[in-house]
Amino acid sequence: MVSDIRVRFAPSPTGYLHVGGARTALYNWLFARHAGGLMILRIEDTDVDRSKPELTTAILESLEWLGLKWDEGPIYQSERLDRYRAMALNLERAGRAYPCFCTPAELQTKRAKAESERRPWKYDGTCRALTEADRERLRAEGKLAAVRFRVPDSGVTTFEDIVFGHIEVDHRDLEDFVLLRSDGHPTYHLGVVADDLDLRITHVIRGADHISNTPKQILMYQALEAPTPIFAHLPLILGPDKQRLSKRHGATSVGAYREQGVLPEALVNFLALLGWTPRGQKEIVAIEEMIRSFDLAAVSKSNAVFDLEKLAWMNSEYLRSLPVERLLPLVKQELSGAGLAMGFKDGEQTEEKLRQTVFLLQSRARTLKDFPGAFRAFFTDDFAFDPEAVKKYWKDAAVAILLDELAGRMAATEPFDLAGTERTLRTLAEEKGVKAGVLINAARVALTGQGVAPGLFDVMLVLGRNRVVSRLRQAADRLRSSEGHGLSQGN
Ligand code: GLU
Asked: Helix 465-482 and helix 436-448: axis angle, to 10°?
């Protein structure tokens, strides 16, 4: 399906991609994909002091990581300054804007006075009624002028927001806002309207914090005799304490969640639900299904709460259910990031073994960090023993003898498969008159360093016979050498 629908995501590179920005990008992307339209990426980098090229790079990377590929752009506002100046001039010529010679210091004094008298401040229109002669004189004096939009004296501006419904603003509540600063730089309003017009944007989808900007921008479209796009503002995102989401609540950038081992699929699914409830109230929704059913009209205007526990749950759901082929490259990245590049150094861990290992572990992972972390023993011999597990499962003095014996028998088990290894262990337990569970738990600690791990025989198969035998022997040695020193110190 092809349509004329064109939306844009317009981040300012003054910070990393925030989860709120990512949600905006996602909704634009879903809307465009659903409708067969296009998403344009625009970098709003006209704030020279605060915009940084490396932040643009980071934003692009985060969008790509999330899988939100744009169709056109990135378009950089900093490369379009002439266009903005021309538009300001046009509005000035048409009498819809005027030069304002008030200096920042003058404005500041007036604002402070209004504040001290508890009057709401808005620009008082000092330069509104200057004659052309006045302007010439001021210019001749070397005074620099900003350009202000002339808001009509009376009347109202209204619009129908797809999410927030009917919105109406009385012009008396708006001030003559600045379009072009005296240094020739555009304000946000000028850049946005010029670009949205030039890019033929049909739907402006952005955070609810922009609602108050919309009437001003609509007035500009009208002054330019241009069609106004349709607006959809997205609900604010709050922390669990119902305050606006901020660093106080923890990580707020997409990159930080990536670093914490969150899967892009999980984050996308989580962000999609911050304001939108897909049909059937399902929580886990595949991206194709989101595209199919996305509907701005179904977006709620109530604030959305960013619930970290839900994100953690979703992440483990995705880790469990994604095809191992999808996880494998991500796990490898994590491993190499932790210095465990190819798994075991002796080359025993073939690609296929690695695949089996990840397949075995994925249902237990909460984040990708678990692979080099809690699951470390599956990828390197340099792993630690959990002191609690040691205390609990290696307390019996007979354990060392049992583990040694088990090592010998595993070395001779044929075939070394699930049934074979299990039979060996159970036979040994019976012969020695111990519960199989005791032996299983002791062996699990020996092989993984942990008290909790996947089924022991599965673990044995992914580790391979040689490693199983040597780890059981080492555990036995360790136990013997630590006797009398207190086993639980072993680690
Ligand atoms: N650059 C603006 C921001 O980061 C977005 C402007 C818009 O969407 O109109 O919030």
From this structure: 100
CATH 3.40.50.620 domain span(s) along the chain: 6-79+237-309, 81-234
Please provide the CATH number assigned to the domain covering 384-489: 1.10.10.350
328-369: pLDDT as tens digits: 999 999 999 998 865 565 555 688 889 999 999 999 999 999
Pick the residue whose CA is nearest to atom 9 on ligand 1: 192
Residues in contact with ligand 1 (CB, 6 Å cut-off): 10-12, 44, 192, 206, 210
Atom number, ligand 1, closest to the C-alpha of residue 24: 8
- Identify the burial level of 412 via C-beta atoms within 10 angstroms of its C-beta, where 0-12 means exposed, 13-18 middle and 19 or more buried: exposed
Q: What is the pLDDT of residues 59-91, one digit of tens each?
A: 999 999 999 999 999 999 999 999 999 999 999
Residue where the block lists tokens 């925030």 = 18
Ligand 1 atom 10 nearest Cα = 11
Taking the centre of ligand 1 as the mean of its atom positions, its distance from the CA of residue 192, in whole angstroms, is: 8
Q: Note the pTM of the prediction, 2 decimals.
A: 0.92
Q: Which residues are catalytic?
A: 247
Q: Which two tokens stand for residue 181?
A: 């600063």
